[in-house]
Each structure stands twice: as C-alpha cells, then as structure tokens.
Amino acid sequence: MRVIRALSAALLTLGLAAVPAAADSSPSPSQDDTSAAPTQAGTSFRTATEIEQGQRATASGSTGDYLYWSFPADTGQRPTVAATVKLPDTHAAQTWQIDVYDGLRRRQACQYGAQTRTAAADAASVELACVLRTVRSWSEPWANDPLPGTYYIRLTATGVAASDLGLPVDSEIRVDSRDIGGSAAVDGSLAEPLVPGIATRSGSGSGDDDEESSAVLAGLEPEDGWASGWWSDRWVWTAVGGVLAALAGVAGYALTRGSGRPSRVPPTA
C-alpha cells in the first residue's frame, strides 16, 4: 500500500508539472486593440512600422510598393505571420510575396504556409502566411537560426503587369506566436537580443550624451521582457523524471526483497 500511495503521489506531481508545460504550448493571447492598431507601413527596414504580436495592423499603398512592419519575438516562440491584400476591382494576374527577416536582416525561411501566391485577374483579395521556425536562445555564428529580437515583415507584389503598377491596394498584417517550451530549448543565450540600437541603450555619461546613448531604433519588446535563456520547462520534466526513477527503484526493491526470514527457520549461528 505504501508503494501504491507513493506512485499516486508521483503521478499527481507529474500532472501538476504538466500544467505549466501545457500552458506554454498554447497560442499567445490575442490583443485585438483596434483603437491603437497601426494604419500605415514603412517603406524600408529603418522606417518599418512596429506592431505587437496579436495586433492587427492595416496599411494602404500602391501596387509595386514595398511595405515593411517589425515585431518582437522571444526565445521559444514560433511566430506566424498572416497577410491579406485587398486588390483593386479591375486588375491583371498578380503575384504577391511576404518575406520575414531577423534582427540581422537575414531572410528567414518559412516552415510552411503560402508565402507566395498568385491572384487571378479581377480576384478580390489574396491571403499569405508564413510560419517561422522556433526562436532559439543561442546559435552558432555560422547558422541561420531564428534568434530573439526584432523581426521585419516585407510585403510586395513580385509579378505585376505594367498597367497595374500604382493601383491602390489595402493590406492587413497580423502576427501570432505559439510558445513551444522546453522541447526547443538549447544551452546558452545571447548577451542582448537582436534589436537595432540596443547596444547603445546602457551608456555612460550625463546630460545630452546620456540621452543620445539611450536611443534605440526599435522600442517594442515582449510583454514580460526578454527571456534570460537559462530557464525552460525542461527543468521541470527533468526533476519529475528523477523523482519517478527513484520511486520506481524503491518500488522494485519492495517487491523483490520478500518478507524476510520465516519464523520457523532458526537464525544461523
């Protein structure tokens, strides 16, 4: 009975430990604040419009323009970028593409999603999507892994007839992330996230020099701040696994040791 009680307690502990892990694997909460949603896009990396994850951003432009947005992504997140382009009433076939770049302006490949789509002539809209790889806390210098920091979205038409250039279009962008948790954790972390200008955030000096040294080109960051990189739910599962292994050893010993020396057998001299 003691073994059964111990195993029951271990299973209860495992269930309690699974709760935060399950929460990590769920999509991040939506932040549909339409009153504060951006209504324009930048025309380059430096002028990209900042948006929060879960926020719907809109922008008007012309066919052939490059539209840029930026958003923060932290360790353990798997961002999904979705875009909808509302096309003019009359137009020829058009090919639209969405590209995502990290803080070093390296183009990041999409795991899956319709990153490029061709809209048929006179189609009302075209929808694009790009699911990135999970953001890692650290990577080898030669690797192209997604790292925590600012990410840039570029939306443009790549195949447009000359007669369609300059026609007005309306675009809508939204970024959501799924927290992957400890399954994607790696050892190590960056000294600073890849945010433009973050190296000048903590400067020394006073007065005007202090104000200049604190200037940052990207001001958004995750709601709970940037992750330190050392903690993940992998620690919880490791501890639970160790406890279960110890309990299994105790249970095995209790089952195999028997009841001891029978009372009818005299002790040996």
Give a verbal description of the structure.
There is one protein chain. With 269 residues, this protein is of the alpha+beta class. The chain has helices at residues 2-24, 208-213, 234-256; strands at 49-50, 56-62, 67-73, 77-86, 94-101, 107-108, 110-112, 116-119, 125-132, 149-159, 168-179. 19% of the residues lie in helices and 28% in strands. The chain starts with a helix and ends in a 13-residue tail after the last helix. The chain is elongated and about 105 Å long.
For this entry, give a set of tags.
269 residues; 6-stranded mixed sheet; 28% strand; 19% helix; single chain; alpha+beta; 11 strands; 5-stranded antiparallel sheet; 3 helices
Gap from first CA to last CA: 35 Å
- Oligomer kind: single chain
Q: What can be said about the biggest beta sheet?
A: 6 strands, mixed
Q: In terms of structural class, how would the helical and strand content be classed?
A: alpha+beta
Provide a count of the helices.
Answer: 3
Sequence of secondary-structure elements: HEEEEEEEEEEEHH
Q: Whole-number radius of gyration?
A: 27 Å
Unreliable stretches covering 5 or more consecutive residues? 16-33, 210-214
